[in-house]
Amino acid sequence: MKNAREMVGTIQLEFFDDSSFPGPAAPKLVIYMGGVAAGKTTARRLHHAKGYVAVEASDIYAKILAKERVPYPDAENTVETIGRLVAFKAVNERRNIVTELCAGQTEELKRLIDKMVSIGYEVDIRYMAG
User: Fold this and answer.
1) Per-state percent for the chain, helix, strand, coil, to nearest 5
2) How far is the C-alpha of 37 from the C-alpha of 17, rounded, in Å?
């Protein structure tokens, strides 16, 4: 990549396709929750690979590494930047979204659900017991 800005823009667009538009229905947010190695990523990829924008740090990081070797501190900042841009674009365009949260993030989860419901999203939480 020529520069970080170009890489961010290129990677951000890789998370979008037309299948993530919900049509006339309300957009959906699907949240997979569970502990480490509980199967969140496997289930998400199996059930929501199409029709949803994945806002997930591990997917973003994998795309960064596929394009360019980035030192860890820079990669962490780049993952966060791309994640915010992907989430903002997905919500702004009212697309279906899927993400993962580790169990125990109760306050973050409540704030996220309240906000998404307030802007017209249906929220589906899927807990993975592992």
Assistant:
1) 50, 15, 30
2) 28
Q: Angle at Cα 5 formed by Cα 20 and Cα 116, nearest 5°?
A: 35
Share of the chain above pLDDT 90, in %: 56
The contacts of residue 59 (CB under 8 Å, 6+ apart) are: 15
pLDDT reading at 99 higher than 50: yes
Q: Give the strand pairing for 28-34 and 97-102.
A: parallel
Residue with tokens 């309240």: 114
Give the per-residue pLDDT at 1: 44
The CA distances from residue 24 to 66, 94, 121, in Å, are 36, 11, 12
SS (H, E, C) 72-124: HHHHHHHHHHHHHHHHHHHHHCCCCEEEEEECCCHHHHHHHHHHHHHCCCEEE
3-class state of residue 20 by DSSP:
helix
